[in-house]
Amino acid sequence: MDAALDALRSHSMSLTKASITYGIPSTTLWQRAHRLGIDTPKKDGPAKSWTEDVLNVALEALRNGSISANKASKAYGIPSSTLYKIARREGIRLAAPFNAAPTTWSPEDLERALEAIRSGQTTVQRAAADFGIPSGTLYGRCKREGIELSRSNPTPWSEDAMTEALEAVRLGQMSINQAAIHYNLPYSSLYGRFKRVKYEADHPTETEEPPIPSHPNLSAPQ
């Protein structure tokens, strides 16, 4: 039994192979291994590329919270599922599973950055650098809150989007502000275009008749 358990503990044999090799019923071997917290793979896999010493180093890094399980798996060449199982069995509190760095800015920083952009005191790129907030986060919040960006931060838009927005406003389906947010258009551009289209509709220009071409002087026949 001890030899079979050692084979399972070192992952040199699967549960089925250890059961056959040492003549122990698989259910009995599984129950004993399960009580001892030993993994019991059902199939023989490739030989492991890590040692117990490497595993202990990885577990210590997880225990200190200096690395995530995913990152430790890549760094030490140990399957992440193995690390998760052993860490959970030993009561190790795992760090964030993804290698994302924690945010260095607070909600107050975000509000100050948005207010500076809203008042035109700064641009998105400059606010991102000043407050340490990703520019993508600022762009997304500006769009969601309907903050008009300055000309130094132009928002790309197409004529098709402008046409659809004008039609939505004309039909009363949206306000100018709602259409600007929905179609990702600058409010001032949409407002100016809508006023111009409305003025042209109310004051159609009269087409001038083309001038009658003058006939050349015909000389009298001699």
TrEMBL record:
It holds the Pfam family HTH_psq. It comes from Homalodisca liturata. Residues 1-39, 41-93, 96-148 form the HTH psq-type domain. GO terms for biological process: regulation of transcription by RNA polymerase II. Residues 201-222 are annotated as: Disordered. GO terms for cellular component: nucleus. Keywords: DNA-binding, Nucleus. One of its GO terms (molecular function) is DNA binding. This is HTH psq-type domain-containing protein. Residues 15-35, 69-89, 124-144 bind DNA. SUPFAM superfamilies: Homeodomain-like (SSF46689). It comes from the Eukaryota. It is found in: Nucleus.
